[in-house]
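Exercise 7. Given the encoded structure of a 163-residue chain, write a plausible sequence.
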């Protein structure tokens, strides 16, 4: 029996650095043309690198929480920092709390990390970017309203109004 194949596209966004930020992850079953789930969320007072990392963390956490650990996972990100740190062992200088979370998730998963050009020709990376920017805007509005929050996470299915 072959392992289930899952493709993931992730992105992060920050309005200011630091500032309000958002992240997104789009997950596909194998070669499906439409995603089976879209994950998204936002934080106040964050950085772009943190949001890039949180997108990856939330996608892998979804895989783990839904008992899909035996899947063969290919994750695409336009963050050279994320891809090269996880694939080539770049030195970790900041966001050590998030790297620790990623390490724990990677222990139980088989993930191939691939870099994709940001703002390029990849439809799903561009869609992730749109969602992450929209989440950053939500975080900014919450900041302006004085609402207190640290990390808001939510998921939406493929029935989202985006498709």
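Solution.
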């Amino acid at each position: 029996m072959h392992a289930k194949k899952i493709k993931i596209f992730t992105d992060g966004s920050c309005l200011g650095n630091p500032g309000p930020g958002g992240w997104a992850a789009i997950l596909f079953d194998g070669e499906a043309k439409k995603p089976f789930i879209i994950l998204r969320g936002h934080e106040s007072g964050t950085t772009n690198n943190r949001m890039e990392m949180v997108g990856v963390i939330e996608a892998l956490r979804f895989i783990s929480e839904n008992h899909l650990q035996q899947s063969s996972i290919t994750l695409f990100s336009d963050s050279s920092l994320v891809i090269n740190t996880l694939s080539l062992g770049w030195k970790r200088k900041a966001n050590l709390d998030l790297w620790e979370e990623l390490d724990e998730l990677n222990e139980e998963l088989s993930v191939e990390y691939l870099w994709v050009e940001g703002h390029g020709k990849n439809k799903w990376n561009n869609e992730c970017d749109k969602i992450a920017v929209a989440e950053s805007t939500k975080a900014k509005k919450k900041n302006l309203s004085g609402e207190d929050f640290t990390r808001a996470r939510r998921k939406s299915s493929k029935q989202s109004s985006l498709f």
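Remark. Residues 154-163 have pLDDT under 50 and may be disordered. Students should compare their own answers with the one above.
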